[in-house]
Design goal:
Length: 213
């Protein structure tokens, strides 16, 4: 185990996929306490078992948390702060997608659900994370008062195009990226963890042009 990371971490959408992999990596690389959150409690238990198999004494707390519910988010962050004393790293990863449905064929409830989780859910979490972090002791250049990572997508920089329409997902990821820029002091550092190709890293201007219907 290496010690690249320190302190307490909180990860949403940790029942599988990127969230679970992040939890495993954090446990391997120095985080001492971990709170994993999701609506899928069976998946969270599996995540915890995987981590405990590697580090039997590692402290993992499972939280059933729906990021659409501001009350659940607030209570979850309060529980973490009460149990662990501080929050050093937060990863806002929970999200869903909808592919293959064009805008004029999509039900409003689907559009609303995607944005409520992928965009507003991130905002709800980072709001409570910031509230917790700004009150904490500043531990210096490396840790500061804490770090927030918003897991986005390359489709926060471009469109999926006509071959794979997903307007609410693209909209939410663009919004998430814009909301993840550094904020004025004394808020803790922000980081946007954006999954994108090297081509997009080199030039964010290579957007897909609008396509005629």
């Amino acid at each position: 185990m290496t010690s690249l990371l320190r302190g307490t971490a909180f990860i949403t959408g940790a029942a599988k996929g990127i969230g679970r992999a992040t939890a495993e990596a954090f446990a391997r690389h120095g985080v001492s306490r971990l709170a994993v959150a999701d609506i899928d409690m069976d998946g969270l238990k599996e995540t915890k078992e995987i981590i405990r198999a590697q580090r039997p004494d590692f402290e993992v707390t499972e939280l059933k948390l729906d990021v659409r519910d501001s009350g659940q988010v607030k209570d979850g962050l309060a529980r973490i702060k009460k149990r662990f004393g501080r929050l050093d790293i937060a990863v806002n990863n929970a999200g869903i997608g909808t592919l293959g449905t064009r805008t004029h064929e999509m039900d409003e409830a689907v559009w609303t659900k995607v944005l409520d989780i992928d965009l507003f859910g991130v905002w709800r979490c980072q709001k409570e994370e910031l509230i917790a972090m700004v009150e904490q002791e500043d531990l210096g250049v490396r840790e500061g008062r804490g770090r927030i990572i918003n897991v986005s997508s390359m489709y926060g920089l471009k469109s999926t195009g006509p071959h794979l329409p997903s307007t609410p997902y693209v909209t939410s990821k663009h919004g998430e990226n814009l909301s993840s820029w550094p904020m004025p002091a004394p808020t803790p550092g922000f980081a946007a963890l954006i999954d994108k190709t090297q081509e997009l890293l080199d030039s964010q201007e290579r957007m897909r042009p609008a396509t005629a219907i």
